[in-house]
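Sat 14:20. Reprocessing the chain from the morning session after the first attempt stalled halfway. Input below, unchanged.
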Amino acid sequence: MSEIFEDNQETKFSCFCKALSLKSPEDFLVKIRQKFAGLLIAKEMYNEAKYEIKKVIDTRNKHGWNLPPIINQWVSQEWYIKATEKDNKTLYRTHKTKAEEILYQDIQEDIVAVEFVNSNKKILNFIINKDKHGFFKYPSQLDNPKVGDILKVRFNKFSINSISKIYTARKISSDTAIEAIKSFEGWFERIPNKNFGFVDDIFINSEVINKYNLDDSQMLKGKAVLSYDKSKEKYGWKCFEVSKSS
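Finished this time. Tokens:
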């Protein structure tokens, strides 16, 4: 793919990052790493380039393969000697998105709302409506997802009962219409001696109360996401964003 985009260096760079993010045997990556090193050198990303070059050298030495003249030329240069070898895995993850968009452009994108986020495990729960929901491990380039975010997702494997697998996920406008998000306005009623309350049928949890410093009998407006209440075994609405109405 990178050869198709010779005139688009950004896309070409992304294609190399996608290729090197895959778990391919090092024997098959020597030429890719060498070409990518050339791009990195052109960008004066010398630490990253040294990582690729050392990978090439290690693999070729392991098999007794000769080093290409360009590799010998690079390792003798001052920038290589001064460079600090840097693991490029984060670089691959950060820049592979554009290539993935091209690879998976024929796959339909579903619009989903984020219902819950476990940032430690990099897993989020999503919901489209009462019949279509689930969870998946989100990619690192989906920066800091939070409850109420609206995403466009390309599913590799969709499942309600087990973890779904995805190709791509990206944030879109919070104003995008989706069945699982609704706006509300009304009086906040806090349950006596409890750190939660309601605006009509909208559940306001302690996290929202503390974040927005809410008091009982305030007029509020905000947004809520459709959420399954396990204790009541039914769907309800959970507030994730609120402002105080005047």
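Residues 166 and 197 are 36 Å apart (CA to CA).
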